[in-house]
Write a structure and sequence with these properties.
The chain has 1 helix and 13 strands. The protein has 150 residues and is mainly β. The protein has one domain. Strands 1, 2, 5, 6, 7, 8, 9, 10, 11, 12 and 13 form an 11-stranded mixed sheet that branches. The protein starts with a helix and ends with a strand.
């Protein structure tokens, strides 16, 4: 058993370092409406982009960019922008062409004031949501993702 631990531990450590190096974290993604699974924003003037780093649930990696449409018609957002740094918020009742309130804004475990999101595409057939958002220290936020239903 001890031998198995010595074999598996280095493998798990190697897996935990995995990242998608095709995502350039120094450049904001273009504003698109095609479900390209892009996310970016400025926080205190610094660029933060989703898609490169995976979030971890225990030892299991999950998606870097998660948008979930829930039964109350809100969109729950969680994006890993750096190892150990996540921005999350809730878009209240999104609709195409609508300006929506974003609530429950958390950055690095710090609660931020509510903000706004302008939805440029909300396609319930293709499950695509695209738009722009901002809140307090978060500026020029944009997203273009395929969402899941909870």
């Amino acid at each position: 058993m001890k031998r198995l631990v010595y074999i598996l531990l280095p493998l798990l450590l190697l897996l935990s370092c995995a990242e998608d190096e095709t995502v350039d974290v120094t450049v904001m993604p273009a504003e698109t409406t095609e479900g390209l699974n892009t996310f970016g924003c400025l926080i205190d003037g610094w660029v933060y982009v989703g898609g490169r780093y995976a979030q971890w649930v225990g030892i299991i990696p999950s998606e870097s960019i998660s948008f979930y449409y829930n039964e109350t018609a809100d969109m729950e957002v969680s994006v890993c922008v750096k190892p150990g740094k996540v921005i999350s918020f809730t878009i209240q009742q999104p609709g195409e062409g609508k300006s929506c309130i974003i609530t429950n804004v958390l950055w690095d475990d710090r609660e931020l004031p509510d903000g706004t999101a302008v939805i440029t595409r909300f396609d319930t057939d293709a499950r695509i949501i695209s738009g722009r958002f901002e809140s307090d220290i978060v500026n020029e936020g944009r997203f273009d993702v395929r969402y899941s239903i909870r």
